[in-house]
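Q: A reviewer asked whether we had any structural model of the full assembly, not just the individual parts. We don't, so I'm hoping you can provide one. Inputs are below.
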Amino acid sequence: MALNFKSYDTENFYDELIESSGAPRPGARILVERIESLHDGEIIARQKAAEAAMYNMGITFTVYGSDEGTEKIFPFDIVPRIVEASDWEYIERGLKQRIHALNLFLDDIYHDQKILKDKAIPEELILSAASFRPQCVGLDVPQGIWCHITGTDLIRDRDGQHYVLEDNLRCPSGVSYVLENRQILKRTLPVAFEASRVRAVDDYPARLLETLQYLAPDNLSSPTVVVLTPGMYNSAYFEHSFLAQQMGVELVEGSDLVVMDGFVNMRTTRGFQRVDVIYRRIDDDFIDPNAFRADSVLGVPGLMDVYRNGRVALANAPGTGIADDKAVYAYLPQIVKYYLDEEMILPNVPTYICANKKDREYVLANLDKLVVKATNESGGYGMLVGPHSTKEQQSEFAALIRKNPRNYIAQPTLALSRAPVLVGDHFEGRHIDLRPYILYGKDIYVMPGGLTRVALKKGSLVVNSSQGGGSKDTWVLS
Amino acid sequence: MLSRVANSIYWMSRYLERAENVARFIGVNLNLSLDMPAEFGEQWEPLVNITGDREQYAKRYGEPIRENVLHFLTFDRENPNSILSCARNARENARSVREIISSEMWEQANHFYLMVKDAAANKAAFNNPHDFYTAVKMESHLFDGITEATMSHGEAWHFLQVGELLERADKTSRILDVKYFILLPDEQVLGAAVDNIQWSALLKSASALEMYRKHSKQISPAKVADFLLLNREFPRSVQSCLGRAAYSLYAITGSRRDGFSNSTEKRLGKLLSELNYAQIDEIIAGGLHEFLDGLQTRLNQVDDAIYDSFFTLRPLTGNNTHLTQEQ
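A: Here is a predicted structure for the entire assembly that you could use as a starting point for your response.
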């Protein structure tokens, strides 16, 4: 029997490929027909071939705490996720607006703090945040841009509406998987790919380089750009080296750089060479032991001084973490309104801020229904998924919230949209999200695609790779 | 290029060449065992001696018997010079310079490691050792070919060459040394025939038998030593390796070939000049084993000098921390 979608059940969720009637959505028709026309076992063979290709290419991430086989391939599903052109147009518009507003917010927060003086958002919310960096107050960043690279997580509810789940303005990762997934899908489903008129993502590295070069101090004809990595044992090392390779720039570690005579230099076989722009994939905390955590051995002592003097550019700017704080996120409609005088295009998931008494009481009374998140954690850590939790876990979180309400927010459990995934010899629906990548240079660019993450465990809503998630190629149609 | 990157490239190619040569050592011994008169049995101690890991082996395994020596040199994770460790280290170094080398090179380094790792898991290697050790050599050759065909012959490539060629020179000298360690009764008792067979096996393990035959028809110890040490055309001879290593070294620094600008050029240049004017009878008169021993020591000194000349740039401020790698 050839694989088909006849017995595929959307189970009352919004499915990205198949309508509840069982028919493929318009944009997915070519793909579905193509898959169903493949003979017995072909799709399974192609899935296996794709996995083998990833393994041989070393497209892996590091799993902490195990010895042999410390690298795993990021689980990958062969059925692409499809985004219709009209949906994408909406998403793109919404993301551009969002990033524009967030950048203005960052510049204001680290300068005049007008938004706080005008009481558009509560002052203590910002000043109490661990991600607010006093070291960045008064910083005049190159071109006035703070968040050069952003990854924003989107989800879709049962009714088909897109919501922003969270923004990642620090060191968002995953874009290399988008590019590699695409390479593999072009090989495995070339016919459907070509016929579906999918928009290209392959020029991302070139655009990233342009974005970085735009930040270089003036009067440099060919600035030296580098990617700064914590090293090869970091879980995202593959991505760091991939991006450096694709941009044709040096991949450096902290120990390769040294501050001398007011500039950042790298150690080369022919002596010291000046560095002008650093795409840093090291968190603020570790980037300069003189300015942030003194025990960091990953960073470059004195880097912040050079940065402050405008003699090196950093992307993203330090301090951007305040803009993706989950409590600040809740105020995004006010932030957009304040700086742009516009209504927010892409809505947030409704959010309860535990620091507010009324919200807190509601959250504590409804822990079994809500998703509770720590405001400064990412990667699916520090999280309670109410409907899937035990009484003990709920009371544990209740205590945590009472002890430090500023640290928590809660959101209703959304029925995340699903997409078909190859499970054994048939397709089953699994929950997914979408992380598009946005570059802010001369203008704001949203890559037409993104990382579709899949919760591979049946019924699970957690898509993070550290918690058993996988990925799919994302086809934005033109 | 970054000093750290140059260091990683240098070691990536050294480790790959080392893995290949350990396979060659084992190959020569497997061949020799087949050709030994039964009463002398198999000799595995020489292998542990020539790789320079004798103490480590004795501490952990005791007597050098076939299974243990093969395991120690092939799959032992704790032996930094086992084929598995070399393949892993080569790949880790390759991984740290992925953005510098071609993706084909990285995939081959990755493939090499995965092949050895899988072989370690299923033990098939010991059932058919010839096939496995041949596969190891071929993986390494494939890497060389891919490198030649896909990487620009710039500074990084020259560092890669220096690493590979110094390693190969060292290992060819050790292959030649195997004969010294093999316990044989007097030639009169054994007969020259067996001796010749052994020299042939030795040439074979350096992939040198056919090329040697074109060079000199008869097999004699002096001529074999001459070929593996001083021949200028054979790509595994010590002379040829060091000549090309020096070429790459001078390409990196841009110095004049008749002088030196750092200690690496000085040491390698002197050693090469001595080989240029050496004759095999003089070497044998002074003791071949002693000569090889001295050669290996001087190659280590060249390696030390490379480290000082290129990989440890002394900053004017801050601490200079670096990772050294096991040789």
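A: Points you may want to mention in the reply: Chain B touches chain A at residues 1-6, 92, 95-96, 98-100, 103, 106-107, 110-111, 114, 155, 159, 252, 310-311, 313, 315-318, 321-322 (CB under 8 Å). The two ends of chain B are 23 Å apart (CA to CA).
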